[in-house]
Structures are given as C-alpha cells and as structure tokens.
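Appendix B. Raw example, untouched.
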Amino acid sequence: MAQGYSHGLAKVLELPVTPKLKVLLAVLITSLVLDQSTKLWALNTIGGVGGHDIVVVKNWVEFVHAENKGAAWSTFSDSPYRLYVFGVFTIVAVVALIQMFRSLEPGEKLRAASTGLILSGAVGNAIDRTWKGSVTDFVKVFAGAGDARRWCIEHFGTNVWPIFNVADAAIVVGVSLFALEYFFQKDTAAADKEDVGPNPMQSSENGGA
C-alpha cells in the first residue's frame, strides 16, 4: 500500500519515479503513519482517563505516557524560544536531507531508505510540536533490577534510558544505517586497493630510472 501511495505522490509532485524515490516515499509514509498512530494510541490509551503503564518486558521495557517539551533528556524544555529553535532546526535538516537525496544515484536504495527514516522522524516530531507544543513519548527502556540496574546507575547515574517514540527510533536507525554503509564501503574500498597491488607501469618506470 505504501508503494502505491508513494508512486501516486511522485506523480502529483511531477518527480521522476526512480527506484530511490520509491524507496524514500515508501519508508517515509510507512514510518510517519506508524509514528503518528502509535502516539495517538499512547495519548488515548495510556494517557487517557483510567490509563496506566503497560509492562512489555518486566524490568526492561514498558509503555508509558510522557509529553516532552524539549529535546532528548528534556533539554531546552523551559526555553521560551524552544519551538522556534526546533522549527528552524527541522527546516534546515529537511532541506539538507532533500539535497543529499537528490545527489544519490537512482539505484541507491539503502541510502534512500535511511534518508526516509530520518525525514519521517524529523517530520513526525515536528507535527507534534506544531499541534500541541510538545512531543508524545511512550517507550521506556530501563534496567529495573539486579546487577544491571546497579551497573547502569554506577556508570551512567541512572538506570532509565530517555523515553522515546517511533520518530526517535527512525532517526537513530536511519543514522546508524548511514554510518554502517559508510564504514562498509570504506573497508571494501581499502580491500579492493590492496587486491589491485602496485601499478605495473609505474613500477617499470621506477625500475628504468
């Protein structure tokens, strides 16, 4: 279904329907819909009247309801200019991602998917801030008992990871895919260079000298 929507959107925008564009729009639409629908679910189910936290994995993962007016760890949450700062940052990030996407080759599907994930995360959280001035978070990951809890508190000062949402996860996954591909290509290029060996023409010229 996402592929059909992405193809239709490409026609509306009068963009050439390349493999990278299909992947970008499919990932962007799917991730954005998943992000917004899960946030609405968290607002109405967990954050609604009579709502309560949901244990997913005991002492490790719970679904909770939190409204974050800032960034990660609630930074800038008290700043009166936070919406303007986040708005400018989002616009700059989206423009940069679009420019980067345009520079990709038509068949670069993995980078297109990574771009779609990061775009969906930026847009998903921007929708929240525009709609209600805060971002709905609901996934709580923590070490709730035993040695793991003690170790986390000893080394990090807390046993709870900042509560996040699907948009946050999409950004992290997208950036991680970019990094993995970069290092993989770097290693491959280095291996190919070693396999080729020295230039025979250059060696003969050096020998003749």
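End of appendix B.
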